[in-house]
Amino acid sequence: MNFRNKKKQPLEVSLTPMIDVVFLLLIFFMVTTTFSKETSIKIQLPQAEGQAIEADTKVLTLTIDKSGQFFINDRALQDKSLATLNSELNTAFGMNKQMPLVINADANAPVQAAISVLDVANHIGFRNISFTTQKE
After folding, report:
1. Which of 60, 67, 80, 86 sits most deeply, having the most CB atoms within 10 A of its CB?
2. Which domain holds residue 87?
3. Using an 8 Å Cβ cutoff, are 39 and 73 in contact?
Protein backbone atom coordinates (compact mmCIF):
# COMPACT_ATOMS: atom_id res chain seq x y z
CA MET A 1 0.00 0.00 0.00
CA ASN A 2 1.09 3.42 -0.88
CA PHE A 3 0.33 5.85 1.96
CA ARG A 4 2.21 8.81 0.77
CA ASN A 5 1.48 12.11 2.34
CA LYS A 6 -0.21 14.12 -0.39
CA LYS A 7 0.56 17.80 -0.43
CA LYS A 8 -2.52 19.95 -0.06
CA GLN A 9 -2.85 22.84 -2.46
CA PRO A 10 -3.72 26.17 -0.88
CA LEU A 11 -7.29 27.32 -1.46
CA GLU A 12 -7.76 30.26 -3.81
CA VAL A 13 -10.79 32.43 -4.10
CA SER A 14 -11.35 33.75 -7.59
CA LEU A 15 -12.80 37.27 -7.68
CA THR A 16 -13.49 37.22 -11.41
CA PRO A 17 -17.09 35.95 -11.18
CA MET A 18 -17.93 38.50 -8.50
CA ILE A 19 -16.48 41.36 -10.58
CA ASP A 20 -18.49 40.14 -13.59
CA VAL A 21 -21.70 40.19 -11.57
CA VAL A 22 -20.99 43.70 -10.27
CA PHE A 23 -20.37 45.01 -13.79
CA LEU A 24 -23.54 43.35 -15.07
CA LEU A 25 -25.55 44.98 -12.27
CA LEU A 26 -23.96 48.33 -13.03
CA ILE A 27 -24.84 48.03 -16.71
CA PHE A 28 -28.40 46.94 -15.85
CA PHE A 29 -29.00 49.97 -13.61
CA MET A 30 -27.45 52.36 -16.13
CA VAL A 31 -29.70 51.08 -18.91
CA THR A 32 -32.92 51.04 -16.87
CA THR A 33 -32.48 54.46 -15.25
CA THR A 34 -34.15 57.41 -16.94
CA PHE A 35 -32.24 60.65 -17.03
CA SER A 36 -35.00 63.15 -17.58
CA LYS A 37 -34.90 66.60 -16.08
CA GLU A 38 -37.91 66.96 -13.86
CA THR A 39 -38.54 70.10 -11.96
CA SER A 40 -39.91 70.15 -8.45
CA ILE A 41 -42.22 73.01 -9.35
CA LYS A 42 -45.54 71.67 -10.60
CA ILE A 43 -46.73 73.60 -13.64
CA GLN A 44 -48.93 72.77 -16.60
CA LEU A 45 -47.26 74.03 -19.76
CA PRO A 46 -49.31 75.65 -22.52
CA GLN A 47 -49.70 73.74 -25.78
CA ALA A 48 -48.05 74.85 -29.02
CA GLU A 49 -46.00 73.63 -31.94
CA GLY A 50 -42.36 74.68 -31.80
CA GLN A 51 -38.73 73.73 -32.08
CA ALA A 52 -36.65 72.04 -29.43
CA ILE A 53 -33.67 73.75 -27.80
CA GLU A 54 -30.36 71.93 -27.93
CA ALA A 55 -29.95 69.97 -24.71
CA ASP A 56 -26.23 70.67 -24.36
CA THR A 57 -26.54 74.46 -24.14
CA LYS A 58 -26.52 76.06 -20.71
CA VAL A 59 -29.66 78.07 -20.14
CA LEU A 60 -31.14 80.21 -17.40
CA THR A 61 -34.58 78.85 -16.50
CA LEU A 62 -37.25 81.16 -15.13
CA THR A 63 -40.48 79.49 -14.00
CA ILE A 64 -43.80 81.23 -13.35
CA ASP A 65 -46.36 79.16 -11.45
CA LYS A 66 -50.12 79.67 -11.64
CA SER A 67 -50.11 82.11 -8.72
CA GLY A 68 -47.52 84.33 -10.44
CA GLN A 69 -44.57 83.36 -8.21
CA PHE A 70 -41.15 83.49 -9.92
CA PHE A 71 -38.47 80.77 -9.68
CA ILE A 72 -34.97 81.06 -11.16
CA ASN A 73 -33.35 77.67 -11.76
CA ASP A 74 -35.92 76.05 -9.39
CA ARG A 75 -35.11 78.52 -6.59
CA ALA A 76 -38.03 80.66 -5.44
CA LEU A 77 -37.58 84.42 -5.30
CA GLN A 78 -38.35 86.20 -2.04
CA ASP A 79 -41.43 87.94 -3.42
CA LYS A 80 -43.32 88.66 -6.64
CA SER A 81 -41.92 92.18 -7.05
CA LEU A 82 -40.27 93.22 -10.28
CA ALA A 83 -37.37 94.79 -8.36
CA THR A 84 -36.45 91.40 -6.90
CA LEU A 85 -36.81 89.78 -10.31
CA ASN A 86 -34.64 92.49 -11.87
CA SER A 87 -31.83 92.08 -9.32
CA GLU A 88 -31.82 88.27 -9.59
CA LEU A 89 -31.80 88.32 -13.39
CA ASN A 90 -29.03 90.96 -13.37
CA THR A 91 -26.94 88.72 -11.14
CA ALA A 92 -27.48 85.70 -13.38
CA PHE A 93 -26.97 87.69 -16.59
CA GLY A 94 -23.69 89.17 -15.34
CA MET A 95 -22.13 85.71 -15.28
CA ASN A 96 -22.72 84.98 -18.97
CA LYS A 97 -23.90 87.64 -21.43
CA GLN A 98 -24.83 85.08 -24.12
CA MET A 99 -26.89 82.77 -21.87
CA PRO A 100 -30.38 82.10 -23.24
CA LEU A 101 -33.40 82.70 -21.00
CA VAL A 102 -36.04 79.95 -21.05
CA ILE A 103 -39.39 80.87 -19.48
CA ASN A 104 -41.53 78.02 -18.12
CA ALA A 105 -44.91 79.65 -17.54
CA ASP A 106 -47.89 77.71 -16.27
CA ALA A 107 -50.82 77.70 -18.70
CA ASN A 108 -52.93 79.32 -15.98
CA ALA A 109 -50.31 81.90 -14.95
CA PRO A 110 -51.29 85.56 -15.26
CA VAL A 111 -50.34 86.98 -18.64
CA GLN A 112 -49.11 90.10 -16.87
CA ALA A 113 -46.43 88.06 -15.08
CA ALA A 114 -45.07 86.74 -18.38
CA ILE A 115 -45.14 90.22 -19.96
CA SER A 116 -43.36 91.67 -16.92
CA VAL A 117 -40.65 89.00 -17.19
CA LEU A 118 -40.17 89.79 -20.89
CA ASP A 119 -39.96 93.52 -20.15
CA VAL A 120 -37.42 93.09 -17.33
CA ALA A 121 -35.31 90.63 -19.35
CA ASN A 122 -35.30 92.98 -22.35
CA HIS A 123 -34.13 95.92 -20.19
CA ILE A 124 -31.35 93.82 -18.71
CA GLY A 125 -30.08 92.77 -22.13
CA PHE A 126 -31.29 89.24 -22.75
CA ARG A 127 -31.59 88.70 -26.51
CA ASN A 128 -32.25 84.95 -26.65
CA ILE A 129 -35.58 84.44 -24.85
CA SER A 130 -37.93 81.50 -25.40
CA PHE A 131 -41.01 79.96 -23.80
CA THR A 132 -41.33 76.27 -22.97
CA THR A 133 -44.47 74.58 -24.31
CA GLN A 134 -45.75 71.06 -24.76
CA LYS A 135 -47.06 69.56 -27.97
CA GLU A 136 -50.77 69.04 -28.35
Report:
1. 60
2. 60-131
3. no
